[in-house]
Amino acid sequence: MIKLLINGSEVHLAADISLEFYDRNPFFTSEGQHTLDIDISLSDPQNAHIYNAMHRIDVTARPENRQAILYCEKGVIIRGTEIILEIDERSAKIQIVSGNSEFNFLAGSDKYLHDLDLGEIDNLTAEEARRSLYSHYPDSEYVCTPVVAKASIRNGIGNMLQSSSTIYNEVDEVAKATTVNLKSGTTLCPQPYLATVIARVLKALGYTRSYDAIAGSPELSRLILVHGYQTTKYSEMLENWTVSDFISEVEHLCGVCLVVDNLVYHNVAYKFPSTSIYKFYALDDDFARRIEYVDCPDRLPQYRNDYASLYNIWYKISGDNTDFYKTDDDAPNSVVASYHSMVAYYDRSFHWSADTPGRRIPLEFPFIVRSIVKKGSNSGVSKCTRLGMVNQFGPRIDENSDDKMELKIVPVENVFCRLHDYYSYPLPVIENGDGDVGNITDEDEGKGVAERLVQGESTERSAKDNMYVGFYMGVSKFECCGEERGDNYPVVPVTINSRLQMRSMPSGTLGYKFWDMQQVKYMDVNGNYDLSINSEHGMYNTHWQIPQQLDLTTVYVIKFRSLQRRDARHIFNIGGRKFYCQQLKYQVVGGRLSDIIEGTFYPLK
Question: Going by C-beta distance under 8 Å and a sequence separation of 6 or more, which residues neighbour residue 24?
Answer without folding.
Answer: 31, 32, 33, 34, 35, 568, 582, 583, 584
